[in-house]
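Lecture notes, unit on protein representations.

Consider one protein chain, 169 amino acids long.
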Amino acid sequence: MHSNDRQIAVEVLSILHLHRDMRICLRYLAALVAVVAAGLVSPASAQAASGLKVSEAVIQSLTAQAIVPSWATNTIGNASAIGIGVIGAKDGNYNVPNKYDYVLPVNMYTHDRFGWNTTGGFYTGPNYCTWQLRSDDHGVTWYRQYPDLGSGVHLIGANTSYIVTSYSC
């Protein structure tokens, strides 16, 4: 690992730990994903910074204020550097056939953007994979879900919320 890589990764992780506003954390995560994707910092370098795995630091930062509103049964948050396809109802009748209903912009949640009280799932495009944080208790606790998912429609449970990051794979 180059010392410059470590310095950048430590700075990004420090910023993530300082900010408790969810949208700010999502912006920094999107920036980190973009930096790693551009090859400016290797994933291994980012993970090695401060002795923590990036996923652990990101989980702590992203989930600090990520409580699902009481009127919603679940939600999906977009922590990607790009919009992601989301599904309102699991009826197979999507606005973009066989894929998704709407594009969820970066740093948004389905309950905020669309006013949905429940979200059916998300779509991962060709040549992309997704990294997910999952909550089964209305956003009180979150954990990293494995494995990362490949392209396709990914339906979620009625009481299961996700924070999703798409990346080229």
